[in-house]
Write a structure and sequence with these properties.
Number of domains: 2
CATH class of the largest domain: Alpha Beta
Shape: elongated
Order of helices and strands: EHEHEHEHEHEHHEEEHHHH
CATH topology of the largest domain: Rossmann fold
Helix content: 25-40%
CATH architecture of the largest domain: 3-Layer(aba) Sandwich
Distance between the termini: 57 Å
Number of helices: 11
Structural class: alpha/beta
Number of strands: 9
CATH superfamily of the largest domain: Vaccinia Virus protein VP39
Strand order of the largest sheet: 4-3-2-5-6-9-7
Length: about 260
Amino acid sequence: MQKNTVKPKKHLGQHFLEDESIAERIVDALTPLPAYRAVVEIGAGTGVLTKYLCEKPDFQLYVAEIDTESVVYLRKHFPALKPFVHEVDFLTLDIDAWISPEALPTFAVIGNFPYNISSQIFFKILEHKERVVEVVGMLQKEVAERLASPSGSKEYGILSVFLQAFYDVEYLFTVEPEVFNPPPKVRSGVIRLKRNDVQSLPCDEARFRNVVKTGFNQRRKKLSNALKPILGGKDLDKIPFLELRAEQLSVADFVTLTLALS
């Protein structure tokens, strides 16, 4: 078993995976077909996933790691990967400047995502949904379940809707705390996102996002109350779903609602 020699930066919310069988399972969750020619690993740490990613011959691996000590470790232990290991914050990274869309138009994302920024990572991925064709990520179990939850469930929320509008989201398996260093206080979950066929929504996407956010801001209330800030003087008889709560609406329902409010 590979041991971590770089101490995790606790303020980053990172917990390093030490069980290589789980690491291999996570890497194997990536689609084996050549659907992309590049993979971005976020938060590689001491390379427990990187090791298995390097064994895959069909794509170029790029590593985004914010911790200086981890970058030094990765460049030393994976010398062939050295030009592609970058000390960067994925959340502020100019992806198109980093990975040329002309040379590599699409790519996948994989990682043991820091718990405290995992949602922000997915919002960043949504900004590049035209290029990110697949995501395999390990994050806090409750968050992973929320992203994969269908409409009608209590876990279903804002990011669930945004992601499921453009991706098929699947919860793969649960990971116990004791396989990490340091062990987190919660269980982890691994999910996979695959880009669906939706290129754009049949409504204004900014308005769609506003409707979803406003609806979930008071998720226990019916939409007739939760959406008051944007209902204005509209004829409520022509607005569907107002007697339901936000968690009861599918992506298609939110699209219909957005169009009715336009």
